[in-house]
Amino acid sequence: CSDTASTRRKNSLIKGVYPASPSSWLFVAIGILATMYMQSDPSMGLITKIQQHLPLHMSLSAQGQTMVSALVFSTLLWLSLILALRFCLKLLLSYHQWMFEKHGRMSNTTKVWVPLVRLLSSRKPLLYSYQSSLPHLPVPAIQDTVSRYLESVRPLLTDPEFKRMSDLANEFESNLGNRLQRYLKLKALWATNYVSDWWEEYVYLRSRGPIMVNSNYYGMDFLYVTPTSVQAARAGNTITALLLYRRKVNREELKPSRVPGTVIPLCAAQCERMFNTTRTPGVETDVLQHWLDSEFVAVYHRGRYFRLWVYRAGRLLSPREIEDQIQRILDDASPPLPGEEKLGALTAGDRIPWAQMRKQYFSSGVNKRSLDIIERAAFFVTLDDEEQGMRGDDPEGNLDRYAKSLLHGKCYDRWFDKSFSVVIYKNGKSGLNAEHSWADAPTVAHLWEYTLATDAFQLGYTEDGHCKGDVEPSLPQPQRLVWNIPAEVQAQVSSSLAVAQALADDVDCHVFPFREFGKGRIKKCRVSPDAFIQISLQLAYYRDRGGFCLTYEASMTRLFREGRTETVRSCSNESCAFITALESGETEEECRRLFQLASERHQNLYRMAMTGAGIDRHLFCLYVVSKYLGVESPFLKEVLSEPWRLSTSQTPVQQMNLFDLKNHPDFISLGGGFGPVADDGYGVSYIIVGEDMVNFHVSSKYSCSQTDSHRFGVQISKAMQDIMALLSADPKTSLSSKGTGQPQSKKLQ
């Protein structure tokens, strides 16, 4: 712990002076003293002024006083230079025009900007070094947001509906909107990010329904490979890899994430609450609790909870030692205590009953001690007694069951409140379930990529599938948690489980690897892979449901400090025009032209969302202000109640350097997924793996007769192939579609 504390102190000094270095003070001091030695005064009289006000002038010689004054001046000058450098870096990072420039056509401004950014960020940064240099998220002009909103809903409304919506919007813009905007701009002046705290509170923490399925999401293991079939060994390496990542986070040794292919940093604030964090329930709102450190993990197996110490006298246990400890838990034949087995269902059901139970029955005695151990643990581990993965006679069906298992399990064998729960299956397969309020999927994906790669390629296994490392024989046994669960709590556990089970049984998950082609072939058509997939999803939905719908694509705003997400409304006038033309039998040439416009439009919408010119977070914040002021806005009320029948998200592959797909082509990540957002809609997550594959995760609800995840999966595959056939049929494709406006990533490395 003292080692961690000293590392934190050292890091805060290094961060505090970035983009300069602590040693640069010496250069400034030597420079000032050298010029004074040459009978010159670089301070233009300031050193003399400082000397006159020094409290020590009685006890120092004249030369000593001059020396101290010069050092004080050097320090002040050095701090001023740091602030100036940081201000310059913030200004440079506020420039986003480079994202909108056509491929291969860089403006002169960007040509000057690139080397300046590189120069100011050339020092090796720590994980949080850029935080104070990141710009604040700007508040868009209200007329811009309203006009962009109207443009986004135009293809979804009839002429009379659009006229009514336009009247509502104009009325809002000219009256109440300006008043709300003034309050929002005031908030933006003092808040680090005008959206993030309200987003966390009102979208996540104040939600009173179950977080299982509705909010939490999952990440999967490798598709084709399970590094070992020994459950305890897989748990040993996975837990070790996660703790090695935590050590990197604590010591800030992780490289800051950047916009892919560029030197532009992304906000790292979400990493702070990755470990030792729990969402605790309240009657009105939940609270995120984070502890600085934790030397144990909480483990669940066959209805029993254990505390597993992962450090011994400050030393991280070896993977083999953790495997041995896990094996002890697996071999423990003791039965669950009364009410213990399904206790986790409290975290899966509605939030208010859980808050009431926690306050009444878990705030003292053995229950408080045991609950504290779970909540303070680095993370939660479930040793599942099922086998999962793409295996056996029904690999497709098993993949779907694997997704459902990670999303909700048995509804009581995960602790859904923990920042994340790791699941290790009986056959060695693994996965995780993550709580959503503390961070977004890319942060968890980064952690999970590192964990899978470290487990398989760095830690490795012996020939018989066990962990490597030595074992200290005197390790204490894992500690069973003790509970005293009265009948009232057991009754609530049963009703929470009934709520959660009904929710879980209703989820229709379908996971499928799309192997026909991947980003390699899409890029040969000079199209952004994300735009290609998004337009394919639009086409699939149109064929599946016979119309268009409001579509949500998650985009990040981590170019700004404490940025989270923004919505790309990817159903646009241009995408609808292309799909209508394709389905009504227009000429191939016309369809290709319209596709080109649609993909360019999508890329533009994505970039606008990333650079703070999105629609939905601004309108959401205006709505929150209206609630604070107690005023009703028919326009905002209608906008925020519109359902997202197609909710989509791309899982980014961020650390391709960890995976050697040439020599190990089977070590392909499956990515992860989430539950449907609308009762009559689809949730679609996808991950672009390597050059030749895209993995899709589709979810919907069985209770809706209009949706079917498998049917939609077939439509996605067909749409992808139909669009590729259209683009490939054009002999001029590689020439005709130049300038899709892809970011200048290669130029900015």
TrEMBL record:
GO terms for biological process: carnitine metabolic process; fatty acid metabolic process; long-chain fatty acid transport. Its main location: mitochondrion. Its EC number is 2.3.1.21. Residues 137-716 form the Choline/carnitine acyltransferase domain. The keyword Secreted does not apply. Pfam families: Carn_acyltransf. Keywords: Acyltransferase, Fatty acid metabolism, Lipid metabolism, Membrane, Mitochondrion, Transferase, Transmembrane, Transmembrane helix, Transport. It is found in: Mitochondrion outer membrane. The chain crosses the membrane at residues 67-89. GO terms for cellular component: mitochondrial outer membrane. GO terms for molecular function: carnitine O-palmitoyltransferase activity. The active site is at residue 436. It catalyses: (R)-carnitine + hexadecanoyl-CoA = O-hexadecanoyl-(R)-carnitine + CoA. It comes from the Eukaryota. Pathway: Lipid metabolism; fatty acid beta-oxidation. It is a multi-pass membrane protein. The keyword Lipid metabolism applies. Belongs to the carnitine/choline acetyltransferase family. This is carnitine O-palmitoyltransferase. It comes from Maylandia zebra. The lineage of its organism: Eukaryota, Metazoa, Chordata, Craniata, Vertebrata.
